[in-house]
Predict the 3D structure of the following.
Amino acid sequence: MSTTTRPRRRVPEALRSPLTVVGVVVAAGWLLVVVLGPLLQPADPLAQSPDRLAPLSAAHWFGTDSLGRDVLSRVIAGARISIPLSLLLVALSASVGSLLGAVAGLLGGVVDEVVMRLADLVLAFPTIILAMVVAAALGPSLTNAVIAMLVVTWPQYARVTRSLVLGARDREFVVAGRLLGIGWFTSLRRDVVPNVAGPVFALTTLDFGNAILLLSGLSFLGLGTVPPTPEWGLMVSDGVQNFTAWWVAAFPGLAICSIVLAFNFIGDALRDALDPRMQKAVGSRAL
């Protein structure tokens, strides 16, 4: 009596690279900080003290800022603002852009022209400049900063999703479903979306780092977070005004750098793992 063994599923080579492991560890560490932030803060991030611009010490591991606030506590509190807001922004941008791109690619015609010309109009302006204009028009606040960032980030998802849908809508199983009388949106949900979700998900991972940078940039310019809210970009802006106290800007800057690099490593690995051509290239290098 013969027995059959199930083939073992191997993790793609791209997901086992050292940079990917480092990215996952760093990203998991920051997500843990977001969840356990209040338990990790050694002091109230808004509490002022007479120890202004105090250097690194046992009492203040990351020193204090110009108002005597503990920098370590503010970096931890800033993670609970920057990371969730960036995740929310990426989710909203991916949802809005992917939906518009999928509808444009599936329906074509006038709908495709309107959506793509609107995307081209947004992409014609530098991202940070357009975000600054929208944020300045709405007024400085976290909510308005997210809205401004959403306005400038959805077109890339729309264009990527549209190109993927254009390639998928003429495949045999989609055409067969349409011949059987399946509606456009049912075909989109059941047949097209599962085949384009992978590349879009990889794009969202790569775009998370850009969202962090854009949110921090708006706060740095005074168009995002309003003081005294602890946000990384605003903390870097405060540090620029005190060059002698390097720790005020250095530690929030390192936080931004670490989380951006971590998600870039993860996004690159996901893109390589979901692209068959990249899988072959990685496999050939490994051999």
Remarks:
- The domain at 30-35+64-286 is CATH 1.10.3720.10 (MetI-like fold).
- The chain is about 70% helix and 0% strand.
